[in-house]
Design goal:
With 292 residues, the protein is α+β, with helices and mostly antiparallel strands. It contains six helices and 14 strands.
Length: 292
C-alpha cells in the first residue's frame, strides 16, 4: 500500500490541473506608505464589472490606513513597483451602525491611469463567480501574500518584495462553538492547520517565515486577508473529473480562528452587494447577471 506521502503526492498531482492560473494574475498585495518605507498589510483581488475596474479586499485590511488618510497602493505595477491608489475606498458597515461588520468588504474603483500601470494583470468577471454554497465536501484553493514572507521596502527607490502562497484545503468540519462574527449564510469555513499544508511531492510542509523560523497556522497566514478563494473540486467527485468543471471564485478570506484551525471566507455576494449599493451606474449590469 502507498504511504501517506505517496498518496498525498498523487492527490497533489491530480489537483494541479484544476488550479486556476488566472487566480495568480488577479491577486495583488495591499501596501501602505510608511515613509521612507512601504509595507504589506493584506491581499486584494482585481475585479471588473462592465468597463469599471475594482480592487477588492477585506475592510479591516485598509481601515486604519483609510482613517488616518495614509497612502495605500497595490503590487503589480510596471517593474514590480506598487501602484498608489487615489480616491476613496467604499467599506461595508454593520447593521444600524454596529461596529461589528460580518461582511468585512472594501472596494476601490481604479482610475484609468492605475489600470494602465497594472502590467500583465487579470481582472476577474462576474461569469467566473459562483454565488452558491460550495458544500460541505468542497475543496478550495486560496491565493494570498502572507505577511511573514514580505519585506518592508523603500517606497520610492525599491520594488515591493512579497511572496504569494497557493494553499489548497477543505471545508472545515469541526465544531463551530465560540466563532465570533461567523454567519453560515455569509461565510465559508476552511480548514487551515499544519496537516493541510503539503509540498508538491506530498511531504508535510513546515510553514516558515522569511528567515526560516517556524510559524503556527492559521495565525501565521496574516496578510492573506482579502485574498481570493476558488472552489476547485468536491470530495464526493473523483479527482480525475475535477478539471471537467471550471474553478469558480467563491469568496475572499476575511479572518482566521486560531483555536479552531480554520479560515473564514466572506462569500462574493457581499462584494457585489456593496458595489451595487455604492455604484448605482452598474446596477443595470448587475441586474442582468442572474445568480448573485
Amino acid at each position: 500500500m502507498p504511504d501517506r506521502q505517496d498518496l498525498q503526492r498523487s492527490i497533489n498531482t491530480k489537483i494541479a490541473p484544476s488550479i486556476p492560473g488566472r487566480a495568480w494574475d488577479s491577486t495583488v498585495a495591499v501596501v501602505v506608505a510608511d515613509r521612507p518605507h512601504a509595507r504589506q498589510i493584506g491581499t486584494a483581488v482585481l475585479f471588473q464589472i462592465a468597463d469599471v475596474f475594482f480592487v477588492v479586499t477585506a475592510a479591516h485590511v485598509v481601515q486604519s490606513a483609510c482613517d488616518a488618510n495614509r497612502t495605500l497602493g497595490i503590487s503589480g505595477g510596471v517593474g514590480d513597483y506598487f501602484v498608489a491608489l487615489s480616491g476613496q475606498w467604499v467599506r461595508s458597515t454593520g447593521k444600524g451602525g454596529d461596529p461589528a461588520d460580518p461582511h468585512d468588504v472594501a472596494v476601490h474603483r481604479l482610475s484609468e491611469d492605475a489600470v494602465r500601470r497594472l502590467s500583465g494583470a487579470r481582472f476577474l468577471r462576474l461569469s467566473e463567480v459562483d454565488f452558491g454554497d460550495p458544500g460541505r465536501r468542497a475543496v478550495c484553493t486560496l491565493f494570498g501574500f502572507p505577511g511573514v514572507w514580505s519585506v518592508p521596502t523603500s517606497a520610492d527607490a525599491q520594488p515591493l518584495v512579497a511572496k504569494l502562497l497557493e494553499f489548497t484545503t477543505y471545508t472545515y468540519d469541526g465544531a463551530i462553538g465560540g466563532l465570533r462574527q461567523y454567519e453560515p449564510r455569509l461565510h465559508i469555513l476552511l480548514s487551515a492547520t499544519a496537516e493541510d499544508l503539503t509540498s508538491p511531492d506530498g511531504a508535510p510542509l513546515n510553514f516558515q517565515d522569511r528567515i526560516g523560523q517556524s510559524v503556527r497556522l492559521p495565525i501565521g497566514l496574516r496578510g492573506i486577508s482579502g485574498c481570493s478563494v476558488w472552489h476547485i473540486g468536491d470530495l464526493d467527485v473523483p479527482i480525475e473529473l475535477w478539471p471537467d468543471r471550471d474553478a469558480t471564485l467563491v469568496g475572499m478570506v476575511s479572518g482566521v480562528y486560531q483555536a479552531h484551525g480554520a479560515v473564514k471566507v466572506t462569500r462574493w455576494v457581499a462584494v457585489t452587494t456593496l458595489i451595487n449599493a455604492a455604484f448605482t451606474d452598474l446596477q443595470p449590469v448587475l441586474r442582468l447577471h442572474r445568480g448573485w
